[in-house]
Amino acid sequence: MIARSLAALALVIGCMPAAAATPPSDAGAVAVPAAPVPTTADAGRPLSPALRNPALRSPMPGGIFGGYQGDTGLDIAGDHLEVFAVASGTLDYSERGHTLWTRGKDTPLSVRIALDEPIAWGNQRITHMYYTHLSKLEHEQPEGAHVRKHVVAGERIGVSGLGNGVPHLHLGLLLDGEVEQDSWTYILREGDVRKVLGGYKNGERLALISDGTKPRSR
Ligand SMILES: [Zn+2]
């Protein structure tokens, strides 16, 4: 059943053509990120588990890697699962739009995070993470907002939804501050996204959040 649904994913999802994936951003947007203020996640809410790359946190516990070549990021299958920040950073936006998939049952909420610390990738640097097909947002923030929310790695940022009618999350890793997704030079391919996260294979399932209860004393 899983194998069949993955095959369906690979065939059906046509997340993002490389060109015009997002509308042009506001050139007048604040260029200097607000100084990140380290905060803990909301009280009592567990962070998502560390990934196989221990510097990063799970984007969607319980999700199944279902990427395919030719996508502008990695697809992770899952039906309305909680979505988390993979690394700490400041929200560029957290709002409706920034996706081509807005019709029918599709849930067109998107988040882009400017990372506090870029991740080295060859001669390039991963500077931004882009999430789309979300059905719910933890924070509402329009692009260009003067006050920008900072999130820590593993903090919940929303709930997944549907893209092209298929329940999944699209996660894009963007390079060198080029966020328009109009050039493959600045977009990691899905296999490379899986490498960055820790060398996962398609078909693998991300670990669930532990139940968060305190260890029993005896
Ligand atoms: Zn995708």
TrEMBL record:
The keyword Signal applies. It comes from the Bacteria. Residues 1-20 form the signal peptide. PROSITE patterns: PROKAR_LIPOPROTEIN. Keywords: Signal. This is Peptidase M23 domain-containing protein. It comes from Labilithrix luteola. The lineage of its organism: Bacteria, Pseudomonadati, Myxococcota, Polyangia, Polyangiales.
